Known about the structure:
The chain has one domain (2-10, 24-217). It has three helices and 14 strands. The protein has helices spanning 2-8, 40-46, 107-121; strands spanning 22-32, 37-38, 53-65, 68-69, 74-80, 96-102, 128-134, 136-140, 146-150, 154-160, 172-173, 182-194, 203-204, 208-217. The radius of gyration is 16 Å and the shape is globular. Mean pLDDT is 90; it is low at 1-20.
Amino acid sequence: MLRTLKFAALCLLLLPPVALGGSVRGDYVEARTADVYTGYCVANGEMNLAGKEAIMAWRVTDGEWKGADLTGLSVLAVVSANSTLGDSYSDPLPARAVLVVDERANAGQKRALVEMAQALGGELLGEVVKIESEKIDFETGGHGEARVRAGDVASLVTRCLAATDHLCGNEEVYYPPLTPVAQAHPAFTLVNEFSGDGLNMTWNNSFKRSAFVGSFQR
Length: 218
């Protein structure tokens, strides 16, 4: 309770997404509640019915944001949008987000992590309804393997796509990642779970071709 109250005050410091203000690089993992690597038939069947939720996670391997050294720290955003994320025919806004910052960060680093996530996440993170501080475990492997856990709030586990993950043989990257990343590998989602507060909903949306694992640099 005390931890939540301490960082609730950060809400007063939130700014709208602004110009990028640092030099950082690291790892990025994302999972949605709709397939991102899929065929048109599956995508059309999910459109406006699924894919309105996402978890976005960044781990800084090197760099700083507005003077705060963020090396080794992570931040995670949980998003609930108005429509299927990535659908060019629908507006995902308004969207609401819960942010989870690395509990190892000091007060200045926590604020920098929030501002960095908002800048990288753009309009999807324009309305942050809650900020929490949790232990964040973040691991990545080759070509789509990742494991991210933010306390009891959110979890992501992905693996490489396999031949058995093809349903129709015409799959492609139907939706791009929600933020600019490099070497983004579509991946199979083993766990995509949000069990926190703030969005008036939770989910456990697993066993889908709904993830990306990549890197970012700004």
